[in-house]
Amino acid sequence: MRMQRPFTLVLLALLLTHLAPTGALATPLFEATYEGEYSNLNITMTRTLIKKGNRYTLSSKAKSFMAKIEENSDFSIFNNTLRPHKYSYERKIFGVKKQEQLAFDWESLSASYTKGKKHEGAQSLVQKALDPTLYQLQLQRDLAQNPHQKSFDYTFVRRNQTKHYQFKREADTSMTFKGKPYPATVLTRTGDGEKETKLWLIPELAYALAKIRHTDEDGDTYEVLLTHYSNTDAFKQFLQAPPLRQ
């Protein structure tokens, strides 16, 4: 009998997900909650973005009956690209914990990976490299600034590896959120063999990620839907390119 992977882990790998807010008094630029179901297990995921000075923290949390996973990304914006500074990942499954961290040094163009308390090595960085959680946020910025862009390519580091995600734009469609229909932009991840990952984003809601569907090689399909979303004017400004310096 084939063992099924915990749905939460699969979604986090896809969402790159995705966390408890780190500034209790700070107003989140956006808050999003997702829900899904797999093998009769209910999954809940939340994401928040908080600004403190010139830095931002993207926080994510996913939980089910069997597992809890948290990720935090501390980043800034450099040359209109999200620039990670520190990434942390923690999961707890059936009481077993795992912790990982990435520390980014942009002066030396290197990222240091720590597992638990043990340093596991460092790797070279390329300019515009992201951490595992930031590609979706960068995707939202790219769409907000270039609504007709057809393809997207992102590089990120994870566990002493460099990975690449490519997406292509499909025909636009519509979807319902809170009982209201919205036009939706659909993207499909390419170059992933027989796996398929699709993202639905709603331009009218600041390109909120409204649905994620992933199909494995064996045909298993996992899906989460946006159930709560709010943002601020500051988030809409965050999505736009900064003005050119004179």
Automatic annotation (TrEMBL):
Keywords: Signal
Short name of one Pfam family: DUF3108
Signal peptide: 1-26
Annotated InterPro entries: DUF3108 (IPR021457)
Signal among keywords: yes
Recorded superkingdom: Bacteria
Name recorded for this polypeptide: DUF3108 domain-containing protein
Organism: Marinagarivorans cellulosilyticus
